[in-house]
Amino acid sequence: MSVFRTALLVAAVSSLSFASLSPSWADDANTMTIKLKDGDVKIELRPDLAPKHVEQIKALAKEGAYNSVVFHRVIPGFMAQTGDVQYGNTEKGYNQAAAGTGGSKRPDLPAEFSKEPFVRGTVGMARSSNPNSANSQFFIMFDNGSFLNGQYTVVGKVTSGMETVDKIKKGNEAQNGAVDSPDKMIKVTVGPAK
Question: Which residue(s) pair with 34 in the sheet?
Answer without folding.
Answer: 41, 188
